[in-house]
Amino acid sequence: MSATIPLAQKLFSGSERSPLIVVSDCIEYRALPLLRYFVASTLRSRPQAVVCAALFETTTEAFGKYFPLELRQRIHARELLGDADVLASSACISQWASAVCKKNPSGGKGISQTADGNVIVIVDSVAPYLLRHPAATLCMELVRVKAVAGVATTAVLAHRDLHSNAALACLHHVSTSRIHVEIPDDITVGATTTRVHRTVAECHVTHLKQTRTAPTARSKESSGTSKWLHTETCTVAISSSGAVKFTHTKVGQNADSASNDVERTTDDAAPKIQPHQLPYVLTDTQKRDILQGTSGGLISYQPDDADDFDDEDPDEDLDI
Asked: pLDDT grade, residue 28 (50/70/90)?
């Protein structure tokens, strides 16, 4: 039986599609090699794909040196941090993505026409952008990038120790996948606990998965697209050469499996509940006997010496 491929590996290899991936790391452990792995895997598996890299912290030379020449030719990278006029615009990322999609490689059609849905947008860090624009503006910009014709996936990197929780919450709100990368103190596999090296990290993945649902005679639901959250934790090891390896998958509870555990009960299969008989409830016959005076019920009162009967005229003080 083959081992299960971790969800993080599926997302970074491009086999599991996600329109917007937000990767959060820390200054101590940068997850930029994961984005490079994503770029290399996508370009190798999809010959028509091209990459649009908006670089805020990395130079084009440093970003592209890990790729062979045949892949590097399909990467369109631009250093946005060094251009103050470009960075002043809140639409600098979407403008660069649009420019890449409209290029005419080899004098042919534009990328958005020849490889529709095969443009991958990479943002190496959102920190310089958030120094000049609020988080809500960044979220709207990422939505604009997703809407650019030809863009299939956008992957952005955020340093969570540089940004507020509110800013990260905004990014998570618009994302379809979020990957939290952190360095654990140790990793337990079975009965063995190993102290980890700084090149080993844990990826906590939350992915909004879409599945096609077909109507069933039992549920009588209409067909369509359903969405459910899938959570998973895996270990990723990054070597000094930039090689990435995913291991130790731990799948969390998701909405799909939880809903499958609950079997719907039809009206025919539901247990019959007998109505509870309330006390002191009269039947129609008893009510009719009471109204006709034939029920046999009688209220009898006999005054005694302690009773005080007032024989005075109640209207005596009114001078009537």
From this structure: confident
